[in-house]
Design a protein that fits this description.
Chains A, B: Substrate binds at residues 357-358, 591-592. The structure is a homodimer. By secondary structure, chain A is an alpha+beta fold. The first copy, chain A, has two domains: 33-305, Glycoside hydrolase, family 65, N-terminal domain (Beta-galactosidase, Chain A, domain 5); 311-734, Glycosyltransferase (Alpha/alpha barrel). In chain A, 31% of the residues lie in helices and 25% in strands. In chain A, helix 9 (426-442) packs antiparallel against helix 10 (446-466). The longest helix of chain A is centred in the middle third of the chain and has 21 residues, at 446-466. In chain A, 52% of the residues are buried. Chains A and B meet through helix 8, strand 21, helix 14 and helix 15 of A and helix 8, strand 21, helix 14 and helix 15 of B.
Chain lengths: 753, 753
């Protein structure tokens, strides 16, 4: 655990420029608006350790880099998030010397992310070349005008002598990814133009040898200031505008840079894109700075009104949950159907903005409750729209039906490690489960009937082809898989995978008769196929150990040396940073919920005894080194009335990044896992379920807290749930009356006038 | 199967320029002298499909390229054979137009590798720009003067008009590997000089971010011709000499290029290297072309005298075995202790010149019988000298003792796929076994006592740390391994691995008391350690199926869908080119001998019944898609008197490359597997074993053949064994009298005067 920001209910704030942990500071002060986003790196050149990361939603490159021995079935390329053309770049000179906070003498440093308004502020006083200057820099990516990045400087001369201030504002396409092997660059400049106080640059991703379309991006910068403009040096890859002003003693100046960013994702031709950029720039340039700030604050307030979680009695917990909500909404708010939720959002290169099963497993329930229903539906349609690519992925492996990708930008599998790409097929189960989850929560079966059934049928066909009959076991088996616990690879009969395979077949068979005759005709599931599916449902192996009363994570799991995770010396945790992969694989330790993930998905369908035995067996073997792990365990612990355990698990998920629990936040935030703290509160502490088509709650109040409160969007209603020492209060803020179950008793909610 | 060369006992010859199979032609016409080698690509630019491959023994680059997710314990870099500075490059102009056989009109083409003399000859007649010219090009890498490459042109004007001939001879450092991802280059030119008719160039491998030394190479070219010299254009990366002559009608010319190549592997400083190059160039330049040719022929004859295998009645088989011997000797002849046998030798980039366990498993028995004893000892010392690096490799995985690398240039593991690097640890067993194999064959236990015991102890300590106690099984187990059958990954209790682990511990315990007290003191194997080793020997799981009377390849192997390989449709073979890796892993199909590899190693220690049951169970499941597979099966089939099967397996190994059996010879030859045909004849058909410290034979004659004959070097003797319809004749050609067993009867051999 490493806490480098101060505890505050609405801000991520520090008063120290922590050069040792600069990247961690940057990860934590990321901002985004779904369309684009960036780490909290400085605008100016910084000669110390830093990771400049600026990303555009849906802009990526198909990398062909190959190492090791090719395995048949691998995708031809793997997708790579690319660092965008750098449009935040702005350098500051004081008396003709460039400011560099890595080496300059500074004081009064503050870095503060205002989550209520979505604005990042940096302040510092710098003394150099006889001058003393106070600088305040505010930046935002607008959630009102997605294409707008705004950067505002307030610079004051604190000394009694005049000071020469120079600002150079740039757009730079000479950008590499840090994970490049041979410093390869991905942007080619198409056109650029520099005017007196504005500039623009158009760049295209470089050619690829696959059929992946190249992306074009256009950026225009304009400036609002009293400073005097002059031409700045430019290069083949960049454009710049320079501004100068001599400040008298105590005098100050304001300088605002606006960057408008358009991409070929939204335009049909280069001319359209260029015209679009010009129109947008004109439109956005007409807004005042105050207006931009006010609109940003109002829009964030509207989001908070629908979703805020209040925790009394624990400011750190309060800060944690708001940080998670803020970063999730910054990554994805459902405005663009073609986008999804990247595990690191816009906060780092690693795992970047690609789509994983995290979305359906952990993101969907969150957005179902906290945003309009169409957001969740858009997430489902994203997969429906990528069904052709999922057929392709299965075909690559010589299998029938559809296999959704482990990692993707366009629906095609974009990752090439066999134990993931070929084996972590349980992801298909979660894609199917998400349809059920949506339908159950919203009560809306139109998606299931119109589109979901296509996905379910295609996935069922995959499972039916992927199982094998074992003469020796007299069961269908699923060999060669990796379960959610990625600390095991190439195992046989992962209970979780087999459970989801069997469930998918069953759910598909149940729903097929409910869809329209036309749809049934199109899907063409034959009687033989249905019989085969039923046979698999009846005879698929779900390994168990009867003696212990547990489901077996996989064949042979009990052969391992089953010492609890508590026996691992503290200096060897997390094991993934201390043990070789070989050691990890042989160990019994579980990275994240595996059997328990299955129990969570169908939590109302297992007996308390089953839940208890499995939790008691598996949790002590679990190291929770996936950020996706603690939330599931918090929910199950709460379900079993292990309240202390539930709170312990909550604490790991709520401040995972803020306290750098897994010692890897330096690479970026664990965006998709951030739903976990919300899930732990809502499904865990408050025990929210859907049972018999009703919303139900069985809340408890963690000892440390005096009160917690959260909002729930449910079937057109907005509810606010408050839990304190006096019990639970549920209020209907919007929508028609609703009957729910609270502690096993029906309660009818009506809006108070 | 694809046969593109003519059948001939001593030549690899074709009269067709097969543009579709140009790379295959190139692989098959590779030449080498252990110090350097090259594919059979043309000297001149060729605009069609070709793979230019020229490699220097021991010259490589540590590549940092990373893709996928880093696994803890991976080596920091992986070694990459790099394409050497191109010194064979020579272009021919006829009437001012460059010859390019991809597009020119040619006739009388011949490409012929003379294996008796080690010379590659190419002939063609080309008609262009009104001229008709006959060209004969001979090339060799000298096995007498290792640093010498010799290229000789005979060019004749076949027309009645004069023809302008121009030859440009170059050294070019602007060379990339074909498997490069971003066209990265590995050579930096240090210095170069061009004289009137000679030139030189010095280049260094580019810097790396590891502690791997950079290599420097120096190349000097000289020319012997009546052509007139003139200056040729040169570039930053290359030097060239140009020569011109106008040929009258029917007139001809000779042109000889000699390249002398030195590397920093043999010199302490750049000055030494430069001086060394100049001295060598002067010395070698003093030889006449005839002398170079004659010395080459004589030296190859001396090799053949000690090793030739004669097969009567089957010219294809005859050609196959000689091709294998020729290519093996071209790759490695034991002159340089620091070198080893690369799986593709100098014939391709893939798997290039790195060292694999193939050397000990398949190469050692070959060199033991066909070369001086010191060659085999050098192979063992190579591993002894890399013991510190083997400790490092084990340490990387958090394990005690020594782990020899799967792939290496310098003893450090140089491959980074976890299922290989971390899991294919059986390689350690073969390193240990090789010590036993050498000692048993030579009768010389000095290596074992002086150096081998260090290796054995270090490997035993690895095994003792790698096993785990399974409470559930009440056995020691070895989880998470890949056996020789690489079509299974991350399996538990591979019988072969466990067998070798147990055997190593036993052999080490047996031999420890025999070494000097000083050595025992240094090794410091404690009594507790010995007790632990004995406990592992007693309780290590060696999985069996009692009912079937077989050893189990791994835990759970019988759960698979056990259809024989014969049930795979022909158009899906080889499966590694048709099935996804996932499909392969789930299948029961075996790439190469696994259980049977263990039975081969200890062939005299299993009962005929055990051998039969295991062969009958596993061979039908084996697809022999490793080139290392058929030979082991040929030997075992012969042992079981399955003579037809033995011959079938022999045929797959003998002409594996010549007939492109696995459809991958285009990438290069399967050098280390080439020992297989010799093993199949000698250990298979002739049944050679060492039993009770005696050489024994139980030969049979394959039906197709009328006679076969081979040479054996054994404990200072040279024997020739002849098998024909009349039985077996064994003659002692050199050395002291020797008693052997022939068909279970003792025979004493004496040299005939």
């Amino acid at each position: 655990m490493q806490r480098i920001f101060e505890v505050d209910p609405w801000k991520i704030v520090t008063h120290k420029l922590d050069k040792q942990n600069k990247r961690l500071q940057e990860s934590m002060t990321s901002i985004g608006n779904e369309y684009m986003g960036m780490r909290g790196m400085f605008e100016e050149d910084y000669s110390g350790d830093t990771l400049h990361g600026l990303y555009l939603g849906g802009i990526w490159y198909p990398d062909k880099t190959v190492v090791g021995w090719w395995k048949n079935g691998y995708p031809k390329y793997f997708g790579k998030v690319i660092n965008a053309v750098n449009f935040d770049k702005t350098n500051l000179w004081i008396n003709n010397e460039k400011v560099d906070l890595a080496t300059d003498q500074i004081s009064d440093f503050e870095l503060s992310l205002d989550m209520k308004r979505g604005i990042l502020t940096r302040r510092f006083t710098v003394e150099k070349k006889g001058a003393k200057v106070a600088v305040t820099i505010e930046r935002l990516v607008s959630i009102v005008d997605k294409q707008l990045f705004d950067l505002h400087y307030h610079i004051q001369n604190l000394s009694d002598q005049t000071v020469d201030i120079r600002l150079v504002s740039s757009i730079d396409a000479d950008v590499a990814n840090e994970d490049s092997n041979y410093d390869e660059k991905f942007w080619e400049v198409l056109a650029k133009q520099t005017n007196r106080d504005s500039a623009e640059l158009f760049a295209k991703t470089k050619p690829n040898q696959f059929d992946v379309p190249r992306f074009t991006v256009g950026v225009g910068i304009t400036h609002h200031t009293t400073m005097e403009a002059g031409m700045a040096p430019e290069t083949d890859q960049s454009v710049s505008n320079a501004f100068v002003q001599t400040l008298a003693a105590q005098q100050s100046l304001n300088f605002e840079k606006r960057a408008v960013v358009v991409t070929s994702r939204d335009y049909d031709s280069f001319d359209d894109l260029r015209n679009g950029l010009h129109q947008l720039t004109r439109k956005l340039d007409a807004k005042s700075h105050d207006q931009i700030i006010q609109e940003q604050a109002d829009a964030w307030q509207a989001r908070w009104d629908k979703s805020d979680v209040v925790i009394d009695g624990d400011v750190a917990a309060q800060q944690g949950i708001r940080f998670n909500l803020f970063q999730l909404f910054s990554t994805f708010y459902g405005d663009d159907k073609r986008l999804n939720i990247g595990p690191k959002g816009f906060t780092g290169e690693k795992y970047g903005g690609a789509t994983y099963w995290d979305t359906e497993a952990f993101g969907l329930p969150f957005y179902l409750s906290l945003a309009d229903q169409k957001v969740a539906r858009n997430l489902l349609e994203y997969r429906y729209n990528q069904l052709p690519e999922a057929f392709h992925n299965a075909h690559q492996q010589g299998l029938k039906g559809a296999l959704y990708p482990m990692v993707t930008f366009n629906g095609i599998e974009n990752h090439n490690e066999w134990e993931i790409t070929f084996e972590e097929i349980h992801r298909n189960g979660t894609i199917a489960y998400a349809i059920y989850n949506y339908t159950r929560y919203t009560g809306d079966d139109s998606y299931l009937k119109e589109k979901g059934i296509d996905v379910l049928t295609a996935i069922s066909r995959f499972w039916a082809d992927r199982v094998e009959w074992s003469e020796h076991r007299q069961h269908y088996v699923i060999h060669g898989v990796t379960g959610p616990n990625e600390y095991e690879n190439n195992i046989n009969d992962n209970w979780y995978t087999n459970l989801l395979a069997r469930w998918t077949l069953k759910y598909t068979l149940e729903n097929l008769p409910k869809v329209s005759p036309e749809k049934q005709h199109d899907l063409d599931v034959t009687e033989d196929e249905k019989k085969q599916w039923q046979d698999i449902i009846d005879k698929l192996l779900l390994p168990e150990d009867k003696e212990r009363g547990i489901f077996l994570q996989q064949d042979g799991f009990l052969d391992k040396n089953l010492q609890p995770a508590s026996s691992i010396p503290a200096d060897q945790r997390p094991i993934n940073q201390h043990w070789s992969w070989d050691h990890i694989l042989r160990s019994p330790y579980i990275k994240q919920a595996d059997v328990l993930q299955g129990i969570w998905y169908f939590i109302t369908e297992f007996t308390p005894e089953q839940k208890k035995r499995n939790f008691d067996f598996y949790e002590p073997l679990t190291v929770h080194e996936s950020s996706l792990s603690p939330s599931v365990h918090a929910i199950l612990a709460a379900d079993l009335h292990y309240e202390d355990k539930a709170v312990e698990m909550y604490e790991r998920t709520a401040r995972l990044d803020l306290d750098n629990y897994n010692n890897d936040t330096v690479d970026g935030l664990h965006i998709t896992s951030m739903t976990g703290s919300w899930l732990a509160i809502v499904q865990g502490f408050a025990g929210m379920r859907i049972e018999n088509d009703q919303l139900t709650f069985k809340p408890f109040l963690p000892k440390k807290w005096t009160r917690y409160q959260f909002h729930i969007n449910f079937r057109g209603r907005l509810l606010v749930v408050t839990v304190d020492q006096n019990g639970t209060q549920i209020k209907l803020l919007k929508g028609a009356p609703l009957t729910i179950q609270l502690n096993d008793k029906p309660v009818t909610l009506e809006k108070q006038s």
